[in-house]
Amino acid sequence: MFKFFNRVKTVVSSELNSMLDKAEDPVKMLEQFMRDMENDIREAETAVAKQIANEKMLKRKYDDAQALADKRMKQAEKAIESGNDDLARRALEDKNNQQQQADQFKDSYERAEQDSNNLRQKLDEMKKEYQEMKLKKDSLKARAESAQTRTKMNRTMSNIGSDESRQGFERMEERVMQYEAEAETSEDLSQSNRSLDDEFDELDNKDNVDDELAALKKKLNK
């Protein structure tokens, strides 16, 4: 479990390059790496908790056995003071048995304590490495998103100035010029299609205006 965590940590850079080559989403892959590390840390915490519980159990057994051995020693001394050698002998025999068990529990407890300390240290290292990888992940994520944004913007700007876009504008400009030419042509045709009656009506209207202007001047003594 600890080895797997270290393996994940050391291959992140190579995996990142590989997934970029395969056109994989680096942001999603980095998030998956972090989830894997979090699972490893949870498993490590569970293992450390079990080891600490085992250490405490051995310590309690050692304390109980040592306490009973000490008790038997005091009882043997009391029996001797009372002149009861047989009782003292039996107390010493049990004291020796309890001391032997206490010594065994002590050895087991000390080994368990050392194992617990080692596991705690490894767990602390895992958490430290996780925080370092988290910072690196955030940096890589920001860089990846920035690169994707720049790529998208460059593609958009490239399309704006592309030959296809320019040709499209030129076609639309020609279409507008064609519409304008058609409109001018229709106006010319409308003028050429005026009848003689239309021209005489226009002349009559002009004469009427001239007569009205002369009458107005006469009225004003101009």
From TrEMBL:
Coiled-coil positions: 27-54
Residue ranges, annotated region (Disordered): 95-209
Biased composition (Polar residues): 146-162
Stretches with biased composition (Basic and acidic residues): 104-114, 121-144, 163-177
Record's keyword terms, sorted: Coiled coil
UniProt keyword Heme present: no
Matches recorded under InterPro entries: PspA_VIPP1
Membership in a protein family: Belongs to the PspA/Vipp/IM30 family.
Protein name: Phage shock protein A
Organism: Halobacillus andaensis
